[in-house]
Design goal:
Number of strands: 23
CATH topology of the largest domain: Rossmann fold
Number of domains: 3
Structural class: alpha/beta
Strand order of the largest sheet: 8-7-9-10-6-11-12-13-14
Largest sheet: 9 strands, mixed
Strand content: 25-35%
Low-confidence stretches: 39-50
């Protein structure tokens, strides 16, 4: 076997024969690392024992090959697309301590009822896994624990044990002894992932892989890692906040817009079937600077409380801070409020926060953010029975939003009796019983209706 030395970008996996200061593929600086590659790659060693399959016509391929099964957690099943797929490779990433290993160990309780599971840990001992399983009340006789970092040994044990589900915690700790690179290196991560991918496709084993994230919040290792797997899930949330959001960044077997909501407790992760009630719990009544928005996460409408604080600045440049809302979007809304609604916010500090550690990226929350800012600036509370839906343009007009009927049904279900919507939205939608709709043409009219 011949060994080749090259330089690989740690961000995207681009290979070059010599060191480069700037990656020509992803344009990042100082990301090249020296790696060694063995001539016999992981993909070739796995494919050597596999028989080549002849090509088939699209009409002759059976559509029943995709076999789904429940993981035992409905929130995880929702994100995966109504369940895990047999023979798929799923990557779960997140910050340390967010709950990745806890989630995977908890689903073993349900998976082991009719399937054999092999849990491979490269970071902890078997005794540590046993202690965590006892804390999470995971008791089953079909769960096998293997504390090993050598990927070749792992694959050998998989062939001996013949599990239905394989869990690898984590991909940055496993390595291949035939490669001289250290564990976690770009070449090691690519090679080990290729082995696991070939194992999943050839044997039909469902593989869950834990991936760490770097300081920027992206998955550690080359970007090609996310292209190789079938599904990429991200665990989001603050460590000091109990709620966790599981979001799909890539899913070959389902939608990437679905989210799952969990609550971290001392006994593990608890599913939150009604996230709107959890996010609105403890909402203040009759206080300026708060408004309720309804956003869509996949097929699920969610109500979130947006709070804003506007105060006169004590410095030359006003301070702007956001949490859970895009900073550039908030700057745009502040400019629209000053220009179109005659609110002098140019010399005021503004702070925007989404309660519960939730992040909102949908433009349909623009009206709620603007009303919360206006309410705090005018020091007048918004009636507690009101919710707001609408995207704001640069001229201050309200634009129509999608899935309006689902949003309105969720608003009624949570006990609200009034809702502000764009004037042109109510064309193909039926108003739910018990809800009064206020059709608004621009943000200035919305402020006049509620705050003046």
């Amino acid at each position: 076997m011949k060994v080749k030395t090259c330089y690989t970008c740690a961000n995207c996996g681009y290979e070059a024969p010599k060191w480069l200061g700037k990656c020509p593929a992803c344009q990042e600086w100082n990301t090249f690392e020296e790696t060694t590659q063995v001539k016999e790659t992981a993909a070739r060693s796995v494919a050597a024992a596999r028989k080549a399959s002849p090509p088939e016509l699209l009409e002759e391929i059976s559509g029943s090959d995709e076999i789904r099964f429940s993981t035992g957690m409905s929130e995880l099943d929702r994100v995966l697309g109504s369940g895990a797929v047999q023979g798929s490779l799923v990557l779960i990433g997140g910050e340390p301590g967010i709950g990745k290993s806890t989630l995977l160990l908890q689903i073993c309780q349900a998976l082991c009822k009719n399937r054999k599971v092999l849990y491979v840990t490269g970071e902890e001992s078997k005794f540590q896994i046993k202690m965590r399983a006892k804390r999470l009340h995971v008791t089953t006789d079909q769960l096998y624990i293997l504390s090993e970092s050598d990927i070749d040994t792992v694959i050998s044990e998989v062939q001996t044990t013949a599990p239905d589900v394989l869990i690898v915690d984590s991909i940055q700790t496993v390595y291949r002894t035939s490669s001289s690179n250290i564990p976690g290196n770009v070449a090691q991560v690519k090679e080990c992932t290729m082995l696991l991918m070939q194992l999943a496709k050839n044997s039909g084993i469902t593989v869950f892989v834990v991936g760490h994230v770097n300081k920027e919040g992206a998955l550690a290792g080359p970007k090609v890692l996310e292209h190789m797997v079938d599904c990429v899930l991200y665990f989001e949330g603050e460590r000091h906040i109990a709620y966790r959001v599981l979001r799909a960044a890539k899913n070959r077997y389902g939608s990437t817009n679905e989210i799952g909501v969990f609550e971290m407790r001392d006994t593990g992760l608890l599913e939150v079937p009604n996230p709107s009630a959890a996010l609105l719990d403890g909402r203040p009544i009759g206080v300026p600077g708060t408004c309720v928005a309804c956003v869509m996460e996949g097929s699920r409408p969610l109500l979130a409380e947006i709070q804003a604080l506007v105060s006169k600045t004590m410095f030359g440049n006003p301070r702007r801070m956001t949490s859970g809302v895009d900073y550039n979007r908030s700057s745009l809304l502040l400019a629209v409020l000053e220009k179109r609604a005659n609110l002098l916010l140019g010399m005021c500090d503004s702070y925007i926060n989404v309660i519960g550690g939730f992040r909102i990226d949908e433009p349909a929350a623009d009206l709620s953010i603007a009303l919360a800012l206006a309410s705090s600036f005018l020091d007048k509370p918004i009636p507690s029975t009101f919710a707001a839906i609408g995207e704001i343009g640069l001229t201050g007009e309200l634009r129509a939003v999608s899935f309006l009927e689902q949003r309105l049904n969720e608003i009624v279900r949570m006990g609200f009796t009034d809702c502000l919507i764009p004037k042109q939205s109510l064309t193909h939608c039926k108003c739910p019983e018990g809800l009064t709709l206020h059709q608004i043409k621009d943000v200035k009219q919305a402020i006049a209706l509620l705050l003046q």
